[in-house]
Design brief:
Elements: E1 5-9, E2 41-45, H1 63-89, E3 113-114, H2 123-140, H3 153-166, H4 173-180, E4 183-186, E5 216-221, E6 259-264, E7 282-284, E8 318-320, H5 322-342, E9 347-350, H6 357-360, H7 372-403, E10 416-421, H8 426-445, H9 449-452, E11 453-457, H10 461-470, E12 477-482, H11 501-507, H12 510-520, H13 532-539, E13 543-546
Parallel strand pairs: 3-11, 4-13, 6-12, 9-10, 9-12, 10-11
Antiparallel strand pairs: 1-2, 4-5, 5-6, 7-8
Length: 597
């Protein structure tokens, strides 16, 4: 019997052949004899498996094969990176020195608030809250379908955006008023970074970015869940996952209890060996300056893998241009504070911006940062830039506000900057110590920093924004968010990034999530025009502000030609005799644009 033959019962629907008497040893068409004593069985030929026509000599691959290799490689790298992070977090030799330092021991003020640890939240609770937020977003946008297995959030969101693209009248009053209050702050115009291809780095599309490198998007929002993922609106002291019904911002209370969320993005130079922005902030090492050999990912990489049918990429060593990177980080700190100043915010809430996942594996791209002391010096420079920005903007404005208090008190904002520092693992302790040391160093030359900067240890930023917002006037609190440049909120509606600040802020705030959906006008990164974000904001009646026109040193500086929407006012009604507007697609701009108001 050939190896390609197996036996099946004739009772199956495919074959209903019954041998006649005396045919127990009949011969099939191939000349092979069937075994005797099996009258109810027949022989079937199994088709030879289809083999790829690609031979060992093939060296040219199609675009489809290269794309498949990229996906496989990304999945393998992601799996190995997650394993490596888990191992590093549980090793004492992780790049940190000792325990968290106390700010008063270094000459700074004591903590404004100090907790022993952060709440522990199970994945079951996280994803349950996420699903509730998805349902609430759909309800608040006027969509009555419940997201489920066959009706995903992405498909429901696409149908909503199709209706909204025809006319903003499709939005309920609450989201309409919220989106009309959005501000887009245009940062300093600089020469775009060169995204030249380099050996060993995957090419990155530059037209999928929505948020500019120095742009800040300010969105009014309200919190639904606290640090433990429990509903903030609780009755009779009983905590619950289900938030109570809250009147939207179009109600009689308006924006009471709401606060600003500032979306801005940090450069990604160390999330993986293919970090998106590392190539732009690095230079290729000159030949002869080092004896290090060409490497694949890292000289100290515990796990490495590549696609099995492609050679592992070999690339020359590149070196991070620290001065260029720190200069852009300084611009981001200052742009956020300038936006806070323009919004007349009294309390700003910051965190170690860009010092988490975007620096975690910098050593995979530049092996000089295998040295823990070197990566710590880089973090310290980031913290120093924040202290310098607070001293130049907030402290200086407070002095100016006291001098001109009778004329204009808005110059003194923000009054306070709350820095939330987490100490739950060696990496976060290292970040905490860098900021505390930077504050203690800055206070030597700027004693007023103690009055402005408030350090809070193991305090959830979103819950703090809610607590400060409920005790202050509407929209007098601002919370900084480390956003994704391609999608504000990234894929918060999916299961990834369980601990990232961007995703978790959105999962605990339906108002923030719905605003990001409308600002993104999509649920996936796609090719966009360079002015796509600006057009999206204007489409909903938002405002565009040029940060370069805000002069911190000149108290009489005015911002001209800026469309400013007063958030306290209600959205004006559409004139009854207004001509119907033509629909306009925000993605491709195929039809005539809506006239400016």
């Amino acid at each position: 019997m050939g190896c390609g033959t197996f036996w099946r019962s004739s009772k199956s629907k495919e074959v209903e052949t019954k041998p006649t008497k005396g045919q127990e040893k009949s011969v099939d068409t191939e000349g092979e004899k069937r075994p005797s004593g099996t009258p109810d069985e027949v022989a079937l030929k199994v088709a030879v498996p289809v083999r790829s026509s690609r031979g060992p000599s093939q060296e040219v691959y199609t675009a489809e094969q290269k794309a498949a290799a990229g996906k496989i490689g990304a999945a393998v790298r992601g799996s190995s990176t997650r394993w490596q992070v888990k191992e590093d977090y549980h090793e004492i030799r992780r790049r940190t020195e000792g325990s968290p330092v106390e700010p008063d021991e270094l000459g700074f003020s004591t903590y404004a608030q100090k907790n022993s640890s952060m709440p522990v939240v199970s994945d079951h609770v996280r994803f349950k809250v996420r699903d509730m937020t998805k349902q609430r977003v759909m309800e608040q946008l006027g969509h009555d379908e419940v997201p489920g297995q066959w009706n995903t959030f992405e498909s429901s969101a696409a149908r909503i955006l199709e209706k909204v693209a025809k006319s903003t009248v499709q939005l309920p009053p609450g989201p309409t008023k919220q989106m009309a209050s959005v501000f887009l702050f245009q940062g300093e115009e600089t020469q775009p970074l060169k995204e030249a291809e380099a050996e060993g780095f995957l090419p990155r599309r530059q037209d999928t970015y929505l948020l500019g490198r120095f742009q800040v998007v300010a969105v009014p929002a309200a919190a639904d869940y606290d640090a433990g993922f429990n509903s903030i609106k609780v009755e009779s002291g009983i905590t619950s996952l289900q938030p109570s019904s809250v009147v939207d911002c179009d109600g009689p209370e308006g924006f009471n209890g709401w606060f600003w969320v500032l979306h801005t993005a940090a450069p990604n130079i160390g999330e993986s060996a293919q970090a998106e922005d590392f190539l732009a902030y690095s230079v290729e090492e000159e030949m002869g300056t080092t004896s290090r050999p060409l490497r694949t990912e890292s000289t100290n990489s515990a796990v490495s893998a590549s696609c099995c049918w492609k050679d592992r990429p070999i690339r020359p060593s590149r070196r991070l241009n620290e001065d260029l990177y720190i200069a852009d980080i300084a611009r981001l700190w200052r742009n956020a504070l300038k936006a806070v100043q323009y919004l007349e915010v009294e309390d700003a809430i910051f965190f170690p911006f860009g010092m988490g996942a975007f620096l975690r594996h910098l050593n995979l791209n530049d092996d000089q940062y295998e040295d823990p002391a070197r990566i710590r010096r880089l973090k310290r420079r980031i913290a120093d830039e924040l202290m310098d920005a607070i001293g130049d903007i907030c402290v200086a404005l407070n002095k100016l506000g006291e001098k001109h208090k009778a004329k204009d008190t808005s110059r003194s904002r923000p009054h306070r900057v709350h820095l939330c520092l987490v100490c739950v693992n060696p990496e976060s302790i290292d970040n905490h110590n860098c900021f505390v040391e930077a504050a203690a160093s800055k206070v030597q030359s700027c004693p007023e920093l103690k009055e402005v900067l408030h350090l809070r240890r193991n305090v959830d930023a979103l819950q703090l924004a809610h607590e400060l917002g409920t005790s202050a006037k509407p929209l007098k609190v601002a919370l900084l968010n480390g956003a994704n440049r391609k999608l504000c909120g990234n894929h918060w509606f999916q299961s990834g990034a369980r601990y990232a600040i961007d995703e978790n802020l959105h999962r605990r705030s339906a108002s923030l999530s719905r605003a990001s959906l409308l600002v993104n006008f999509d649920t996936e990164p796609r090719p966009r025009k360079p002015t796509q974000l600006e057009e999206n904001v204007r489409f909903f009646g938002g405002s565009i502000v040029d940060l370069t026109r805000i002069n911190n040193k000149d108290s009489n500086a005015k911002i001209a030609d800026v469309k400013h929407v007063k958030v306290q006012d209600s959205i004006p009604a559409t004139p009854a005799k207004e001509k119907p507007k033509k629909s306009y697609c925000l993605c491709c701009g195929s039809k005539e644009k809506l006239p400016k108001e």
